[in-house]
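pinned: reference chain
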Amino acid sequence: MKWLAVLVLALATALPAQAETVLRRGMGTEPETLDTQCSSGEPESYIELDLLEGLLTYDAEGRPVPGAAERWTISPDGLTYTFILRADGKWSDGSPVTADDFVFSWRRLADPKTASRYAYFLNPVKNARAVAEGRLAPDALGVAARDARTLVVTLAAPAAPFLASLAHHSLYPVNPKAVQAFGDGYTQPGRYLSNGPYVLAEAVPQDHVTLVRNPYFRAATAVAVDKVIYYPTENRDTELRRFRAGELDVTYDIPEAQIAWLRQNMAAELRIAPFLSTFYFAFNLTHEPWKSEPKLRRALTLALDRDIITGKITKSGQLPAYTLVPPGTQGYDATAAQPEWASWPQSRRNEEARRLLKEAGYGPGAKPLELEIYYSTSENYRKLALAAMAMWKMILGIKAVPVNQEWRVFLDTRNRKLYRDLARVGWIGDFNDAASFLDIYRSDAGSQNHAGYADAEFDRLTAAATVERDAGRRRDLLTRAERRLVEDCILIPVYTYASHVLVSTRVQGWRDNVLNMHPSRYLSLMPPG
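pinned: its structure tokens
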């Protein structure tokens, strides 16, 4: 295939010669995969946002805007979405982006052979559930190409959050030619075809991922940065040292223990902003005693002092959390689902926790309990696990053991529910809507339902909210669903995140936003010196 042999040469020669602009970004962990329909981590999603463009994409403020689709219409009954693709949309080999490309990609996402953790994003689409369960073939999915530029999507029922969800990476297109030629190996440099502002030039495991400007991107002339290099650095202290040494222009995160020093010494580079994300511990409800002991789950939830964690340990803008959905979620009041005990002093919570532990038959003189807390490699996560362990030991006499795993291993452990007791979760809203947080705990959500929760009433309420077109009634349904989630104590909310990164003063165009989305296409660099 000649297009493979000449791709890199074309990318290097299609743009006028000029001084190369290079943006160096931290990405935390090594990417799990750059297969946009199989990845599930935040670092991968940032790279994929640079490589690909869905029907909708994000602007510099993290808001969903037209992407590969220039416009769309919605039928009066809310069931038919008709998208008109841009005439100048192209893949990085110069071929046009077509409606058939989206049909192929969405069928691939729904196909159980792909085993995507985000296949449920297609649940609103007609026949998507039957396809995902293997009861219908992928070509039964309610998506069709009317012509090369017209994509028609038919829903099973009206779905309020559907349009906003289309900016999510799982719904980006993959190039059928590349996937059919190379299968899962299509993600390798030289094979990966992009329709976004950049194309994959190099991927060296445990070292870096390099993207170069895509000359065929529809808005290539507006992309200021020629090359973006992502560096995995799991240790936040190491990443800070790299930034201070000038090896990074943007960090993925910062060590929380250094926040005070950074405020004093690097205030111009420090960016802290509200983030649509919640940190919590999930109980494994497929294991005992968690499956059958709600009082035990509630005891651990009450005994965790969130004020100490956010005020003494993290100290970087986080707020104590008592619900899954964070403040700032569009069209939703997160405080409406808070439990009664959220207003109690910690001393009263501790007293109630000890009472519940005794009623559950655990504690001093009763059944012993030793639990494991799973977390991915990070000094920040280690400190949080140790803090939780100390509180449960002091208040409840429960011994806990931390279990640290490398990112990919941890994801597999958590998604397959191989952890015994508790696993840390940092859930980031895939789009700015309460459904992005609540729907993952529907019984049909698959591996993203980290706790293995299954409750018919919760399912009914969230399903009703999906089809409800009145904003007030929909908000009420979602609030009732979250109250049920909180009452069942299937997870332990700890805090709502704040995004905190270091951004070089040379970087221009950075806009703080609740989704923490910062596509490289909107950034530029001032000349050094």
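why pinned: Residues 1-17 have pLDDT under 50 and may be disordered. The radius of gyration is 24 Å.
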